[in-house]
Specification:
- Helices cover about 30% and strands about 25% of the residues.
- By secondary structure, it is α/β, with parallel strands linked by helices.
- It has 2 domains: about 110 residues, Response regulator (Rossmann fold, 3-Layer(aba) Sandwich), CATH 3.40.50.2300; about 55 residues, no CATH class.
- A 5-stranded parallel β-sheet has the order 2-1-3-4-5, with helices on both faces. Strands 6-7-8 form a 3-stranded antiparallel β-sheet, with no helix packed on it.
- It binds zinc ion (ZN).
- Zinc ion (ZN) binds next to loops.
């Protein structure tokens, strides 16, 4: 079970997100205080931290400065460009403006930040209808690799930032890994 720290100042929001993440199968630790986040990180060794930019005592920025080995997502009540730039500069894994997202999207973005993206590799045989047209669309002229003649595969990576059933597509050679 993945461990998550939810550090949100607002009590109602915090309990709402704790419930959402618990329902999504996370073990959740919660606080409104940045100092607690640092203690919890040492004690519980979480997989990821979701923290307000303005947690009590120690801010989200200072949490970012203190935690180096775990992904930290910064949560903000507004989409402020200067806040976002500062957070990204301090190596925030993501910056989420809570007025622009649904709770499901927040869960998705936490999963993406942990590297839990699904992907599929499909071989391009005749059974994959329309594959040749798709290849052409990507600028390829043949089914096989230009370098080693191995059949290309279609690689699909789930993109939860767009929606539950969206995938990013690309082609590559399974032998020499060239695109
Ligand atoms: Zn090749």
């Amino acid at each position: 079970m993945k461990k998550l720290i939810v550090a949100i100042k607002n009590n109602i929001m915090r309990s709402a997100y704790c419930e959402i993440f618990e329902a999504a199968g996370f073990k959740v630790f919660q606080t409104n205080n940045g100092r607690d986040v640092l203690h919890l990180v040492e004690k519980e060794k979480p997989d990821i931290v979701l923290a307000d930019i303005d947690t009590e005592e120690i801010s989200g920025y200072d949490i970012l400065k203190s935690i180096k080995n775990i992904p930290v997502i910064i949560f903000s009540s507004t989409e402020r460009k200067d806040e976002k730039e500062k957070a990204i500069e301090l190596n925030a894994k993501d910056f989420i403006s809570m007025d622009r997202v649904t709770p499901n999207e927040v869960v998705s973005r936490v999963r993406i930040a942990m590297g839990e993206q699904k992907s599929y590799k499909l071989s391009l045989k005749e059974d994959l209808l329309g594959a040749k047209d798709l290849l052409k669309d990507f600028g390829y002229f043949q089914l096989s690799c230009r370098h080693c003649s191995t059949d290309l595969v279609l690689n699909l990576i789930k993109d939860l930032s767009v929606g539950e059933n969206y995938y990013k597509a690309s082609f590559f050679c399974p032998k020499c890994f060239k695109k």
